[in-house]
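Bug #77: duplicate submission created two jobs. Keeping one. Sequence:
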Amino acid sequence: MPNTDISPISVTFLGTNGWYSSDTGNTLCILVDTPDTLIILDAGDGFHKIPDLYPYVDKPAVLFISHLHLDHISGLHTLARCKFENGLKIYCLPGNKKYLTEFIGYPYTVPISELSYNLTIEELPVGMSNLPFPVKTALLEHTQPVYGYWFDIGMKIAFCTDTGPCQGIIDLGSGTDLLITECSYLPGLENPGWPHMNPETAISYAIKTGTKRLALVHFAADLYTSLKQREKIEEEYSNHAGLIVGRDDLKILL
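Kept job's structure:
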């Protein structure tokens, strides 16, 4: 198991927008920095900030891709800027490896074979996997297959984005120290034909799962056009202990 006694685990929200980058933020990318591993959750435009924060990553790095919508993989074209000295392993849904391999290559970007470090892509099955730390996956509810992830890195963290209400959020989020969910829709807004969540739905799942802290991310850029709208969520749900409303470059410690 990872040694979490050396330093705290930090979570940095590099990109918190959904659909496209705007004045409110970059598209989705989250860093979970542990003493043993740098964990990256999705690779939207916020991914480009990694080499500025970590000019040299001297520990193993892993990237978990929820699905292949462009706002979750667009940052992969900046892989050539990164210095993952111990390599980068990308994990994804079954069937997604071939698409990622094509995307990280000509004519789109620098191909895997020309990067300065070793990069591998592996498809994970539904359920539990034994990587350097325990990882569990579950299918979420969206217009195409989407993975949610659960990690035990001394702290238990779940990541569920691009999903409507579903059992997968409960399966992954129950008993976690931190549940990261999407919040694409404005309060009161729903669209069953394009499954996403609004803040009250996300908070209801935080209550159902008993998570200690809930972080909201993936705010639809066409709906959340100012950060003041996110501030209103904090004000309205200030009685929900442990609520974190994501903003680009916000860093928290676990």
